[in-house]
Amino acid sequence: MSSQSAISQDSAPGLPNGSAAAAILSAGIGSFTLALLTIVADQSATVKSMLSIYKPTGALSGVTTFAMLAWIVVWAILDWRWRGRNPSLKRINVIAFALLALSLLATFPPLGDLL
Amino acid sequence: MEITTRSLWTLVHGMGFGALYLLACSGAIVLLFLRSATNEHSTPKGDRVLGIYLTVMAAVAWLTVLSGTYIIYPWYRAAPPAGAAHLTAFPRSLLLSNPATKQWHLIGMEWKEHVAWLVPIAVTMAAFIAIKYARDLKHSPPLRTALYGFVATSLFAAGVAGFFGAMLDKNAPVDGGQTIRLVQGE
């Protein structure tokens, strides 16, 4: 099957929106995990050292690697659970945007230091 | 006219991948707006173009953060030897050594290095939805809201990273390595 026909099949109108909901929510969760790990690494020397999985880059290597892993794993699990369903996208958007906004704020050092 | 390998990598990362992403992001927002405002762009061909466009953007976003984190950042944060008198080869230490510049690291670099990673997450998700739900986008406002929101947020995050990247390079450039002669002087 050509990739063109695969895209056409996948994008037939009326496709259950579960996979979209999984992608949107997992993006929010992945972003928030990144912000959370950033704060934890900043406040704990032990965690910072544990997250330094590639010495030249320091804790940033662990923060980003584990956040990306969390994002992909959550995406895969949610997609598997919701693929054929139609969860409320409005509600999913609200949660995902809230997590994204918190991530933007929490990665800003003056605010992250307050937490 | 010469350039060092480290400067060249900084250019590739910032002026190449980073600037290309910012330009592409503006284009994506216009493309998404045109698709919701008119029927003209909501054709099978237009759907494919949007999917390919966002996929290329995702690839550029990944190249930007990976080159920044694993090629340039180690040069930026390298620790100087004890008692080093000149810190120009150690940008992080150079910034921190001066009260007038230390906030560029403490706020600028600390924010940039993390917030930039939100970009590939957001745009990879957007590319996935644009491909898988190409025909549904027109009829699903929540799907379009998610695409708009995440692409716009990625533009903001990439803008923050780009702004601080430029200012950091202005105050303490990542330089060194082999010198490449671009044009022979007279």
Unreliable spans of chain B = none
Return the domain count of chain A. Answer: 1
How many beta strands in the DSSP annotation of chain B? 2
Distance between the termini of chain B: 10 Å
Shape of chain A: elongated
Order of helices and strands of chain B: EHHHHHHE
Q: Let me know the number of strands of chain A.
A: 0
Described by the principal axes of the CA atoms, the overall outline of chain B is elongated
Share of helix among residues of chain A? over 70%
Q: What is the average of the pLDDT values of chain A?
A: 90
Rg value of chain A: 18 Å
Structural class of chain A: mainly alpha
Topology:
The complex is a heterodimer of chains A (115) and B (186).
Chain A: H1 3-10, H2 18-43, H3 45-50, H4 59-82, H5 89-107, H6 109-112
Helix pairs in contact in A: 2-4, 2-5
Chain B: E1 2-4, H1 5-37, H2 44-77, H3 91-96, H4 102-115, H5 118-132, H6 141-171, E2 179-181
Antiparallel strand pairs in B: 1-2
What does this 3D model show about the protein?
- The complex is a heterodimer of chains A (115) and B (186).
- Chain A is mostly helical and 115 residues long.
- Chain A has one domain (17-112).
- Chain A is built from six helices and no strands.
- Chain B has one domain (2-78, 90-176).
- Chain B has helices at 5-37, 44-77, 91-96, 102-115, 118-132, 141-171, and strands spanning 2-4, 179-181.
- In chain B, helix 2 runs antiparallel to helix 5 and helix 5 runs antiparallel to helix 6.
- Chain B is elongated, with a radius of gyration of 20 Å.
- Chain B has a two-stranded antiparallel sheet.
- Chain B is built from six helices and two strands.
- The A-B interface holds A 4, 7-8, 10-15, 17, 19-20, 23-24, 26-27, 30-31, 34-35, 38, 54, 56-58, 60-61, 63-64, 67-68, 71, 89-90, 92-93, 96-97, 100, 103-104, 107-110 and B 44, 47-48, 51, 65, 69-70, 73-74, 77-78, 106-107, 110-111, 113-115, 117-118, 121-122, 124-125, 128-129, 131-136, 139-140, 142-143, 145-146, 149-150, 153, 156-157.
